[in-house]
Design brief:
Strand order of the largest sheet: 2-8-7-6-5
Number of domains: 2
CATH topology of the largest domain: Aspartate Aminotransferase, domain 2
Bound molecules: ligand F0G
CATH superfamily of the largest domain: Type I PLP-dependent aspartate aminotransferase-like (Major domain)
Shape: globular
CATH architecture of the largest domain: 3-Layer(aba) Sandwich
Distance between the termini: 52 Å
Radius of gyration: 22 Å
Number of strands: 14
CATH class of the largest domain: Alpha Beta
Structural class: alpha/beta
Number of helices: 16
């Protein structure tokens, strides 16, 4: 059989919410043309993020009922710790309420003014937490990442030669750690090869710099290695993931992605002295070390999710489903970041809407049009989010895990192609008001007059 099917059946359903075109026009106007400002009940298909939006399994819900809510020494913590250790091999496992809490604890201990933290591409929260501690976050993606149309495998890789040059220029003592984000979210959801992690490991070991994984989408990354990297076809996703973690000195993790949890995260290290400092900070701001800001039931959901996400049938379906969306729009003329990534498809809005100048936010214009036409929510990753320093004008369609079915994906393909057919009529936007920081969440826009 050739058809790849959803490897689950559905026991509990949530109704979708329809709106009319006239209602959507009014909703957009009231929201200041900012999709973050729209109520979820006015969205038909929500592709704002794949974070915390997964559908949990019967096993996860069952485990939640076993949640031990003891303040100290909860059984749920030990199940969580065992699950994380079996996967990552790290000695110290520190639970946090989500990924950025792990980042904050790690960077506030390791980073000082004058420090530099390189990565293949930092996610916004890692960059912000590094900069908040006075250090500089530097992105070192491979050259192919600059061209959205280049169909290169492992386009999420770190430029290891550039890393070596940076270490020579800055001095190893000013680089407290190197991070590799798997998959590379800000770089189009592209995977990182095992060979690249190994090469980075070789450089960081030589300079005695710790190597960390920002491991949010480790399972999707493992599947790409299995599928596309020579020598890994016969390994299980779990074996590949274990090898990835074995090359690192520690990791940060948001369980809201590849653990199918609605909340949660963790921070790992093999360094006992560092773990002690991290634990002390954890107690100060997150909670006692056996719950770290989570309920016992949340720890249970993560423990089970980490097992389920590595099932080959799930990962094959997941990556195929994202690629199906990508190929069906790209092969009919919609410019996406090639090749399709793991958790999302990114449309190159500047390329699709060349008549809208960057100062008039082509990604935002496309996001608004897709909602107006089909009730679909996506997110601009371009000049609205990053200002003039944005490398690309992208629209991200992030796919929640196990939530939407093939017919939803077909609906998305149809909607995007219809928007593409009348792309020349789409107009740009200007900002009416914006806050001082992180303007994409609350800025208000108005359409530019033709
Ligand atoms: N690292 C990466 C690569 C991420 O994608 C995210 C979150 C985080 C860290 C932070 O984790 O949200 O649990 O604090 N990404 C979400 C997204 C928000 O939509 O891409 P968190």
């Amino acid at each position: 059989m050739r058809t790849i099917i959803e490897p689950f059946r559905i026991k509990s359903v949530e109704p979708l919410h329809w709106t009319t075109p006239a209602q959507r026009e009014q909703i957009l106007e009231q929201a200041g043309y900012n999709l973050f400002q729209i109520r979820a009940s006015d969205i038909l298909i929500d592709l704002l993020t794949d974070s915390g939006t997964s559908a949990m399994s019967t096993e996860q819900w069952a485990a939640m009922m076993r949640g031990d809510e003891s303040y100290a020494g909860s059984e749920s913590f030990y199940r969580f710790e065992q699950s994380v250790r079996a996967l990552t091999g790290f000695r110290h496992v520190i639970p946090t309420h989500q990924g950025r809490a792990a980042e904050r604890i790690l960077f506030s201990i390791l980073c000082q003014p004058g420090h530099v933290v390189p990565s293949n591409t930092h996610f916004d929260t890692t960059r912000a937490n590094i900069e908040f501690n006075g250090a500089r976050a530097v992105d070192l993606p491979v050259a192919a990442a600059r061209d959205t149309q280049a169909r290169v495998a492992f386009k999420g890789n770190l430029d290891v030669e550039a890393l070596e040059r940076l270490i020579q220029a800055e001095g190893a003592d000013r680089i407290p750690l190197v991070m590799i984000t798997v998959t590379n979210n800000s770089g189009g959801g592209q995977p990182v090869s095992m060979a690249n992690i190994q090469a980075a490991r070789e450089v960081t070991s030589r300079h005695r710099i710790p190597l960390y994984l920002d491991a949010c989408r480790f399972a999707e990354n493992a599947w790409f290695i299995k599928r596309d990297e020579p020598g890994y076809g016969d390994f299980t996703p779990r074996e590949i993931a274990q090898r990835m973690f074995a090359l690192a000195d520690g990791c940060t993790f948001s369980a809201k992605k590849d653990a199918f949890a609605n909340i949660g995260g963790f921070l790992c290290t093999n360094n006992s002295r560092l773990a002690e400092q991290e634990t002390n900070l954890l107690i100060l701001t997150e909670g006692f070390p056996t719950y770290g800001g989570l309920a016992g039931r949340d720890l249970e959901a993560v423990a089970v999710g980490l097992e389920e996400v590595l099932q080959p049938e799930y990962l094959e379906y997941r990556i195929a489903s994202t690629a199906y969306l990508g190929r069906h729009i790209a092969d009919r003329g919609v410019p996406i970041v090639e090749p399709p990534g793991g958790h999302a498809i990114y449309i190159d809005a500047a390329r699709m809407l060349p008549h809208i100048q960057r100062a008039q936010f082509p990604g935002q214009a496309l996001a608004v049009e897709l909602y107006r036409h089909a009730g679909v929510r996506s997110v601009e990753i371009g000049s609205v989010m990053f200002g003039a320093s944005a490398p690309h004008e992208l629209l991200r369609l992030a796919i929640p895990r196990r939530v939407y079915t093939q017919s939803h994906v077909d609906y998305l393909v149809e909607a995007i192609l219809e928007v593409n057919d009348r792309r020349e009529s789409i107009r740009g936007f200007e900002i009416v008001s914006e806050p001082q920081f992180l303007r994409h969440f609350t800025a208000r826009f108005r359409p530019v007059r033709a």
